[in-house]
Amino acid sequence: MTRSGRLLLGALALTASSLLVLDFGGSTLSEGGAVAMLQGLGQPDLSLGALTRVTELAVHTLAVAVFGTGLGAAAGLVLAVLGSTAAAAPRRSRVRRALAESVRLGLDGLRALPDFVWALGLLLVLGPGPITGALAIALSVTGILGRAFGQLLESVPARAVASQEGLGGPPVAAIVYGRLPRVASAAWSYGLARLECSVRNASVIGIVGGGGLGAELFEELGYGRMDRVATLLLGLVVLTATADTASAALRRRISSARAAQRRVALRLALGAWLAAVVWLGGDLLALGETLQRVDSRLALETLRRLGAPDLSWQVMRELFWGAGAPLALAWLATAIAAAVAVALLPWTSTVARWRTRGPRARPNVWAVGRALALRTLALLARAVPEVAWLLLFAAALGMGPLPALLALTLHATGVLIRLFTEAVDDRFAARPRDGVGPGATTGWLVYAALPRLRGHMVTHAALQAESNLRTAFTLGILGAGGLGEAFHGAISYWQLERASTLALGMLVLFVGLDRAGRALSRNAPR
Amino acid sequence: MNPAVELDGACVAFDGGRGLDGVSATLAQGRTVALIGPSGAGKSTLLRLVAGMRAPTAGTVLTLGQPLASLRGTAYRTLRDRVGMLEQGDTLTPGLSVLHNVFAGRLGRWSAARAVRNRVLPRAADTDDARETLHAVELADRMHADPETLSGGERRRVALARLAFQAPTVWLADEPTAGLDPRLRRETADLLLRLVRERDGAAIVALHDLELLSCDFDEVWGLRNGVLEFTAPAQALEQARIDALYEACP
Question: Which domains are present in chain A?
């Protein structure tokens, strides 16, 4: 059997087992409910009071995201530099390698659990509030960006930095003068992309007590006030779309820019972070009091119990079966989203269409309009966070795996349409003579574009699958079943040993998949 | 006083076959050498041996009296700081200003804290020091420029300033003038030798361009197929020996 045949068979087997694991029986479309919901959503509350409230909540959400991301990026940078000292040292040293490996493991741990879970954990100590949400985001961002920065630093070829690293000085100094400046613009780009995600996550982290748009959305959905829900969703879309556009503009500036322009961006970012600190000033000051009020005996007891996971047969079985649901959800959502995004490429990519019409062809207004419309739909799909989609679908279908799958798939499709389309357009717009050929758009895509971009697109899809796995866990916490639901139950009933086992299980699952994926991609033929 | 460099039967074996074969030579402190030979003769390998970036597979290599490649920890760090190496090609860090590129020369001496501090808020004393060095290569006015905005010759001079800022005892340069036009090549080589002399250093400069032999070198070493064919005072070198060095291999 050929390689692609084996891959296809594997994909089918995964899909079949995923469908077996997930129990879609619980969901039924209640027609009345769905109609009422759609009617409500069609008539958002646009009164001045509602709009002011949404704006205030949006700014609050933005402040939480900026504050948390800044904190996490700084911590991630420090850890990444420490973790790369082994690569930058002129001699192999066992101590440095051990340090690097433990930093990497720590970052994996931070990265494995979604910020939603960190928020639940912090809630136990700090109580609800924006700082809880910001710190949860910071923890998860530290893990994600720390790992990304570390990979960037290690990707610099040793030859290029030999004149800094050959001197025998402290490796940290060599990194700051050699590797770091070389990857600075890529690191900025990663950081800003993470900020976009943080804005989305901050808007839903409120559901577990972080305040902002999410808390209100959850509340209004509970009361069934669909007009207010529509207003809040609108605010959410405007907020995330604005954040996406602003950060994309900034990213372009940084990647094309010289040192002077980067300095401007740095000042802008620092200014935004300080503005967020000022906005959250009252809550930050209150943090000191909160920490003083924390019962240290109780906190220690909590930590002790979290540190002693329950390894009984019963909990292990729950862990084993619970892990199936997020895995199945992540696989199905990623596979469907990737397939849809590839299938839509002939209509979403303007370059693909124009490229096959010959070198003198002019962009066709109708085709450009259609591409813009599809991309706007994709923007909407990804601007609403998965958690918000889940709540909406659950309102119509009842809570369960089905609304979770729909929510994950819809969001992931929005993300992948953008990434795949940009991959094609960026690659081929700038190189007029590369891969030009006659024939239909689809043929050109299949024979000229996609083979050149396969590695790129697989990476995008794999990253999305990783994010989907984390999110599937989060959706579980809200009632979609699986490991997340079990974890939430354990925390709610204060069964901390059981909660610890389940979180550790998630961690092992995540790290294991990550290492396996890395090993596979190293061995795959290029 | 130990010689700057002492090679005794130094060999390097590569899988491909090219390497160094029993190279023996001594360079006294304060002397300058032009290292010549056809491409693939082993010039870069010899420099990397002296810099301790690679250990000999047989024989000994002593830099300032010590086997640099087998030292560890503080001993390595202290000695390595006294050996300056200018690698082939462009070795400036993009995205770092000229000043910070020059600062990188002292990374072997500075503590991590001082290096990081100088990256963020340069100390006045260190900045003045760097300005003086940049003055010697006539680039003091471009101290805060982005290296991307400099010409090829200017970039090479910044790299020399970084080496001068390190102020090593042994200077090693691997084709420091490659990629420059003939007039600039001459100027750059002269500048390098002037910097070495002003700081009482010893230098081995691998040269591709034989025109530069007329610069003020003390000795010439001829390398061919990994074998050191001759070491001779620069004044007394006959053209015939150079011709023999570059003759087609049998």
Answer: 56-305 (1.10.3720.10), 322-526 (1.10.3720.10)
